[in-house]
Amino acid sequence: MSWNVDEVTLNSRLVMGTGGASSLSILEQALEASGTELTTVALRRYDGTARDSVFAMLNRMGIRILPNTAGCYTARDAVLTAQLAREALETNWVKLEVIADEETLLPDPVELFRAAEELVLDGFTVFAYTNDDPALAKRLEDAGVAVVMPAGAPIGSGLGILNPHNIETIVNRAQVPVILDAGIGTASDAALAMELGCTAVLLASAVTRAHDATAMARAMSLAVESGHLAAHAGRIPKRPLALASSTFEGMVTPA
Amino acid sequence: MTDTISITLNGERHVLARPTTAKDLVSGLVDKDIAVDGTPVDGSRLGIALAVDGEVIRRGKWSDFTLAEGHSVDIVTAVQGG
């Protein structure tokens, strides 16, 4: 069941975000229930309060940290944020997020690509949050990103996977892991991502904003696992008409 | 030459004694003693990074970096997100 990034083996295929939880203790329970081994955090100005406790909590839980560049609109901002994250959190892994506008939070392809090139050159292991565009995904891979992370739907929308065909195309052409990122609303969305061949799923709001975050975290964990199993179990072909599963031989017929 | 300097820290103006190093600034902010290598003396992990005028100053350089009048300093840490 394991997968690798940068020679690091991860057993869970569920990558969690930490945004949206109403309290740290609810977040901790949800992360525990999710079984995740890799979790994103954002980077913000230190304000002297207990804000660093996410870092402390993840360290205590033994969960690897994936800093993101959420909120950045330009390559320049994203590169600086990534460099600060590397220094603050002692990791060269970064989830590169360069958004185009506040309304869609969708990636800005031009700035994203520029930032990806620069960060790869600077020695980062780049997880690139991208559009569900097979051409852009390929360009990012060619630029040297370690993981391609297409959006299923806009962040926090819970709309699921709007273009499964594109996600499948991205997966089929990628030599690097593909993580479905953003848009997941419920367990079936996560299972579908895995059935489409994704290596893992990244989600936050679907769990942290669920009425029962812990139950949803467990549901997502099971969905990712079952989707992965199904993807590699060789599903039956779809047929236009029925194919009987019971034999007609030896049927009892009235005299 | 006054014995204070004025800097911008996380977007707000601050007046500091001259000289103040980046290490002094962080140490005061987190209320911990920090060793020359930029790590807390108590063995904990800071989870903090510092940039001056848009350039990251690595923690090992904090004790050598003296802040100057007009510097714009950002100090960041991890928060819930993503």
Main β sheet profile of chain B: 5 strands, mixed
Quick one: which chains have the greatest interface?
A-B, 39 and 24 residues
**Class per helix and strand makeup of chain B:** mainly beta
Under CATH, the topology of chain B can be stated as Ubiquitin-like (UB roll)
User: Which CATH class of chain A?
Assistant: Alpha Beta
Helix content range of chain A: 25-40%
Helix content of chain B: 10-25%
Question: What percent strand of chain B?
Answer: 35-45%
What gap, in angstroms, lies between the N and C termini of chain A? 56 Å
Strand order of the largest sheet of chain B: 2-1-5-3-4
CATH class group of chain B: Alpha Beta
Quaternary organization: heterodimer
Total separate domains of chain B: 1
- Compute the number of strand runs of chain A: 10
CATH architecture grouping of chain A: Alpha-Beta Barrel
Spatial shape of chain B: globular
Spans of at least 5 consecutive residues with low confidence of chain B: none
Q: Write the H/E string of chain B, N to C.
A: EEHEEE
Pfam family, one (chain B): ThiS
Organism (chain B): Brevibacterium aurantiacum
Protein name (chain B): Sulfur carrier protein
InterPro entries (chain B): Beta-grasp_dom_sf, Mopterin_synth/thiamin_S_b, Thi_S, ThiS/MoaD-like
Report a brief summary of the structure.
Chain A has 255 residues and is of the alpha/beta class. Chain A has helices at 24-34, 53-61, 75-89, 109-121, 134-143, 164-173, 187-195, 205-208, 213-231, and strands at residues 3-5, 8-10, 14-17, 38-45, 64-67, 93-96, 125-130, 147-150, 179-181, 200-203. Chain B is mainly β.
Commentary on this structure:
The complex is a heterodimer of chains A (255) and B (82). Chain A is α/β, with parallel strands linked by helices and 255 residues long. Chain A has one domain: Aldolase class I (TIM Barrel, Alpha-Beta Barrel). Chain A contains nine helices and ten strands. In chain A, the strands form three sheets. A five-stranded parallel sheet of chain A has the order 5-4-3-10-9. The termini of chain A are far apart. The relative contact order of chain A is 0.14. With 82 residues, chain B is mainly beta. A five-stranded mixed sheet of chain B has the order 2-1-5-3-4, with no helix packed on it. Chains A and B meet through strand 4, helix 2, strand 5 and helix 3 of A and strand 3 and strand 5 of B. Strand 4 of chain A pairs antiparallel with strand 5 of chain B, so a sheet runs across the interface. Chain B: InterPro entries: Beta-grasp_dom_sf, Mopterin_synth/thiamin_S_b, Thi_S, ThiS/MoaD-like. Chain B: It comes from Brevibacterium aurantiacum. Chain B: This is Sulfur carrier protein. Chain B: It holds the Pfam family ThiS.
